[in-house]
């Protein structure tokens, strides 16, 4: 495969044989409030996806549980046939209920159904990357992932999945997955204010495994702090830009998937993430986050 060249901030990362831009796009909130669809303005949502790809983004994060299904269907409508360079990462391990909840669904037959559902809604024969999402809507939960992850390994051996990852997991669960089969990424909640995974990120970097923080901007609760606002003001930037630039500078294995339903925000985030943070700003942000 041709090496990927990009003008996007952060350059590129490679999932074994699949290069991606470190600046990616998270599609969860495209479906509508609380990731429940249908989107109020379908054309506007499609336009954001096309704009992301036109800007050079080659990593989109999604799930059939977003919408549910609406987000994957939007991706298919807006982008199929997909450019060869595009890597669509999806995740399995939960369904949606009528109230918008995320009931866990990780029995072998649940996971097989979810993988088949993602193949159908995205309109592909092989999923580029599937994350097994552990825990529940309230966060991490201890316990073995062996049976569920083993099912995804079987689906990979059946040719339905190219790469595997894990999400919403403890360091012990990452170790357990790595003992079963290679993973290319860990997708956990992490941002300037939530630094629980600092050691894990460094350990994964040493093993060439990507770390993909979800809620890089705080998700449903936007990041807010006087320190962050102060640093942003001093640098003539915005808190969101500083938060994204900090993640890119934090470690080369961090891949960004900020979400937005607005084209203008997409461009603000791309421009903002290119900010070069001086050492004193990084030190100040470090003190706030730890
Ligand atoms: N593995 C998991 O368990 C898990 C859990 C949650 C999320 N995820 C993934 O992580 C991705 C990122 O998370 P997220 O989208 O929930 O949270 P996020 O990226 O931290 O923040 C997205 C929110 O920030 C707003 N925003 C973005 N850019 C902005 C800007 N320049 N100015 C003002 N507001 C801006 C968006 O609103 P607008 O739409 O108005 O721009 C949206 O409400 C998701 O899309 C999903 O793919 C994974």
UniProtKB/TrEMBL annotation:
NADP-dependent oxidoreductase domain boundaries: 24-288
Domain of life of the native organism: Bacteria
Keyword Transferase assigned: no
Keyword Oxidoreductase belongs to the record: yes
InterPro entries xrefs: AKR, Aldo-Keto_reductase, NAD(P)_OxRdtase_dom_sf, NADP_OxRdtase_dom
Cross-referenced PANTHER family: AFLATOXIN B1 ALDEHYDE REDUCTASE, ALDO-KETO REDUCTASE YAKC [NADP(+)]
Protein name in the entry: Aldo/keto reductase family oxidoreductase
Species per Swiss-Prot/TrEMBL record: Rhodococcus artemisiae
């Amino acid at each position: 495969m041709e090496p990927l060249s990009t003008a996007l901030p952060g350059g590129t990362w490679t999932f074994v044989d699949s290069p991606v831009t470190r600046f990616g796009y998270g599609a969860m909130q495209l479906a509508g409030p609380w990731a429940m669809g249908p989107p109020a303005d379908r054309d506007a949502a499609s336009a954001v996806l096309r704009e992301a790809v036109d800007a050079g983004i080659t990593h989109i994060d999604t799930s059939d549980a977003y919408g549910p299904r609406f987000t994957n269907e939007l991706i298919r409508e807006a982008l199929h046939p997909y450019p060869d360079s595009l890597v669509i990462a999806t995740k399995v391990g939960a369904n949606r209920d009528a109230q918008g909840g995320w009931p866990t669904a990780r029995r072998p037959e649940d996971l097989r159904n979810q993988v088949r559902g993602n193949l159908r809604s995205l309109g592909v024969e092989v999923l580029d990357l599937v994350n097994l999402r552990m825990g529940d809507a309230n966060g991490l939960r201890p316990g073995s992932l062996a049976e569920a992850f083993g099912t995804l390994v079987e689906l990979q051996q059946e040719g339905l999945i190219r790469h595997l990852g894990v999400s919403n997991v403890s360091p012990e669960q990452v170790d357990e997955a790595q003992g079963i089969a290679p993973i290319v990424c860990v997708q956990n909640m992490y941002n300037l204010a939530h630094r629980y995974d600092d050691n894990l990120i460094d350990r994964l970097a040493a093993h060439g495994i990507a770390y993909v923080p979800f809620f890089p901007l705080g998700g449903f609760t936007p990041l807010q702090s006087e320190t962050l606002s102060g640093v942003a003001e001093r640098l003539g930037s915005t808190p969101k830009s500083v938060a994204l630039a900090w993640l890119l500078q934090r470690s080369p294995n961090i891949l960004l998937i900020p979400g937005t339903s607005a084209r203008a925000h997409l461009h603000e985030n791309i421009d903002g993430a290119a900010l070069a943070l001086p050492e004193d700003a990084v030190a100040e942000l470090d003190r706030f986050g730890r």
